[in-house]
């Protein structure tokens, strides 16, 4: 299995209904943006676009290498002419 480089941060999860707190290792919002873009380019689901818009509205910027990734997607989808959004 290949190792994937991911950007993580440690966060504390808590609830107003419990007294116990838990430390979690989570993706950063920048990493989540990269994951959502990759998911959209892979499966073409509109729900990923909704998530990308949500992150953009929260101030998370698009990754610097976005043109390289979307360029590959557009070339392959134009060649097959089967881009469908569900």
Overall, the morphology is elongated
Topology pattern, helix = H, strand = E? EEHHH
Q: Which parts are unreliable, with pLDDT below 50 for 5 consecutive residues or more?
A: 77-83
Largest pleated sheet: 2 strands, antiparallel
Query: How far is the first residue's CA from the last residue's CA?
Result: 30 Å
Write the layout of secondary structure elements.
Blueprint: E1 8-13, E2 22-27, H1 29-43, H2 46-57, H3 66-80
Antiparallel strand pairs: 1-2
Helix pairs in contact: 1-2, 1-3
Structure, briefly:
This protein has 86 residues and is α+β, with helices and mostly antiparallel strands.
What key phrases describe this protein's structure?
single chain; 86 residues; alpha+beta; 2 strands; 49% helix
Describe the protein in words.
The protein has 86 residues and is an alpha+beta fold. The chain has a domain at 9-14 and 22-62. Helix content is 49%, strand content 14%. It has three helices and two strands; from the N terminus they run ββααα. It has a two-stranded antiparallel sheet with strand order 1-2. A hairpin with an 8-residue loop joins β1 and β2. α1 (29-43) packs antiparallel against α2 and α1 (29-43) packs parallel to α3 (66-80). The model is unreliable at 77-83 (pLDDT under 50).
């Amino acid at each position: 299995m290949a190792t994937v480089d991911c950007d993580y941060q440690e966060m504390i999860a808590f609830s107003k209904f419990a007294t116990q707190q838990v430390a979690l290792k989570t993706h950063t919002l920048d990493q989540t943006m990269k994951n959502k873009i990759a998911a959209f380019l892979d499966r073409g689901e509109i729900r990923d676009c909704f998530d990308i818009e949500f992150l953009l509205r929260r101030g998370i910027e698009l990754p610097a290498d976005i043109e390289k990734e979307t360029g590959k997607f557009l070339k392959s989808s134009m060649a097959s002419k089967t881009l469908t959004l569900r």
